[in-house]
Write a structure and sequence with these properties.
7-stranded mixed beta sheet; Aldehyde Dehydrogenase, Chain A, domain 2; binds nicotinamide-adenine-dinucleotide; about 20% strand; 2 domains; Aldehyde Dehydrogenase, Chain A, domain 1; 15 helices; alpha/beta; aldehyde dehydrogenase (NAD+) activity; Ald_DH_C; globular; about 500 residues
Length: about 500
Amino acid sequence: MNTPQVSPCDSIDGIQLQTQLYIDGRWCGAAGGAQLAIFNPSTEEVLAHVDAGSADDVDRAVRAAGRAFKSWRNTSGSARAHYLRAIAVGVEARRERLATLQSQNNGKPLEEARIDVGDVIATFEYYAELAEGLDVKGESEVAIPSPEHRALIRREPAGVVGLIVPWNFPMVTTAWKLAPALAAGCAVVLKPSEITPLPELELASIVAECGLPPGVFNVVTGTGVEVGAPLAAHPLVAKVSFTGSTGVGQTVMKTAADTLKGVSLELGGKSSIIVFADANLDLAVDLVAGGAFFNAGQMCSATSRVLVDRSIADALVERLADRAARTVVGDPFLSGVQMGPLTSRAQFERVQCYIARGKEEGARLVIGGEPMMGAGYFVRPTIFVDVPTNSSVWREEIFGPVLCVRSFDSEQDAIDAANDSEFGLVATVVTSDEARGKRVADALDAGVVWINAPQLIFPQTSWGGYKRSSLGRELGPFGLAAFQEIKQILSVRNGG
Ligand code: NAD
């Protein structure tokens, strides 16, 4: 075990916080001495100050990871599984603290933050199993039409990898990358979002305490320009796994092209939920509201476009408006609160801007549209109907609790309307006709389709989308493969 280093900590409500960078097995200040103020979106108050790294810190972290990789790459899958399980146990032990920090920093209701922590645990446990499996399946013989030769395919770790994550599901998006990267045998430099580093640093301190060899896991907090860009550019980084906006993802890919490193991208979405006339309306209302207002709509997978059969459109909209009116918006720590604030002032302003544009573009506002009075970035659930297909609110990712509704006249119309998007992350189909549900799911350009189901995501499955929503897939064996190289070894049988 490497000894955990003590570092200066802020505290929130008596909870000591980690606020430094973690490089080569030590907590340390940023080379340039800069700091970032971290806010509570419910109160707009400063929660803490976190060290803000720069290209020098990224370089130190990448070099430490490169040194550690030399021996880490040769550890057995079961040895790596041991660390992954230790992380899952550590997260379990600090469940409530992680959830609390996430609600304070991101603004999501405590119940939602607890769900995220459960996802993190499940992800580390799942990749522990896959890591163990590598001891058996990491190398396999392939049948070839040449009896005198033997061909082996080996899966090897990609190398030093940079993980860049956003603020909407900070710990979950980190776990989806960190667990498979460590399972594969990669050494990691993690760059959390500059908006929500507090739960990430708490997760990092759990990882740091699980005894990984120094340098295998490093964290550099800071801005995208100061830390994310140099990480994507660093010549010793073999691969960048990025989750964030489509525009920044494109920049990361262009940067990575200079050193021809691999990239995986999980980007934005503008997904549809299709409600057929035979749908159970109670279920449809639950699924639409969940898909649009969970995490205050700040979900890449938000099904923020509703396509509803014209014959039930009025009935559905009436019930959705009622649900929106009854949604309790407020302090994420109060019991009964269903929606917290947006996570940052920038996001709050962006959503206000989209709501104003929606009105200008001719969409009819049914409910919401106004920010709530007082401190905090609170926005009420907002519903637009009769939304023009060429409007920005129909076509662009808003990333807030804004739902846009249109009607359709046939199954094919619904499929065409859903697929008419530059994105293709997810979709939901609500129908009591099982055959139709499957037929429509098959026809949708989306990486995940839920039929009559809420947005459940199991680590055993897959995550990612079509078109401008993703490049590659996370979760399941696909998530592990993203951090592996493939080597073929061909030899002459019987030693030649
Ligand atoms: P963002 O693109 O602004 O930032 C994401 C991360 O990239 C942050 O850590 C940021 O500091 C960093 N970054 C910024 N500029 C960079 C640069 N030039 N080079 C390298 N890194 C840079 O996204 P955000 O606002 O944090 O998150 C919201 C977006 O994330 C939404 O578009 C959402 O759809 C997307 N998202 C996608 C998924 C998915 O699985 N597809 C999941 C969650 C969020």
